[in-house]
Input
Amino acid sequence: MEQAEVVTYKYEVSAEQMVRFHLLSYTHMNAIELTKGDMNALVLLALRGTPTLIDFCDELVKRQIYLSLGSARNAIGELCTEKNLIVKTGNYKKKVSLSPAINLSLKHNTLLSINCLLR
Output
C-alpha cells in the first residue's frame, strides 16, 4: 500500500476565525453555496448561541448584514429549510441555533482536525 504524504498546518486563531473556517469547510465539503451575508449571519449565530429569532434578526440589521428585518427573516428561513444549517425551536418566542450536523463547539479550547485524502 502506498504511503500518504501528511501536510500539517498549525494556527492559533480567534473564536470567530475558528467558526468561519469550520463553516467554510463544512459548506464546501457538503456543496452548500452561501452568500457573504449568509456566512456572516452563521458566524454571528455560532458566537451568540441560541438567541430568539426576533433578537437575532434585529442584530443582523443593526450590523448591516441584511438591510431589513424582512430580508433577515427570509435569509434565516432559507438557511433553515433549504440548506439545513439553522434550527428553529419553540412556539411562541422561537430560538435559532446552528444545526447539530455542523458539530461546532466553542465551550472549551478546540482543536479542529480535518483529514482529507486525495483519491
Summary: Residues 100 and 110 are 17 Å apart (CA to CA).
